[in-house]
Design a protein that fits this description.
- The protein is about 35% helix and about 10% strand.
- The protein is of the alpha+beta class.
- The protein has a three-stranded antiparallel sheet.
- α1 packs across α2.
- The longest helix is centred in the middle third of the chain and has 16 residues.
Length: about 100
């Protein structure tokens, strides 16, 4: 058989499609491409993104930035190493007395 017929299907998407799929703006996609955070190819003047490759790059970038994966392959999640949990409850703001009748 012909090798061209045995290739995997093309999963390239446009900037707009990628933004909708991962839930960000098109400006965010363009910025990430310019910074080299996600790969793309040019088709004439348009950018096309391989969705699987973009997701792999995003995972690697997150691991490099935060140290470890947020969730394991089996679906169990644990806090990231070295990242303290955000404080809840007391914000440290001073309490004020309520003055009846206003000022």
């Amino acid at each position: 058989m012909n090798d061209r017929n045995e290739q995997k299907p093309d999963h390239r998407v446009s900037i707009k499609e990628l933004a909708e799929l991962i839930g960000v703006s098109t400006d965010t996609i363009r910025r990430a491409f310019r910074k080299g955070e996600i790969p793309a190819i040019r088709v004439k003047t348009a950018l096309r993104f391989d969705l699987d490759e973009v997701l792999r790059y995003m995972q690697r970038n997150a691991e490099a930035r935060y140290g470890t994966k947020a969730c394991a392959a089996d679906g169990t999640c644990r806090p990231r190493a070295g990242t303290p949990s955000p404080r809840t409850g007391n914000t440290g703001a001073q309490t004020t007395a309520i003055i009846p009748g206003g000022l």
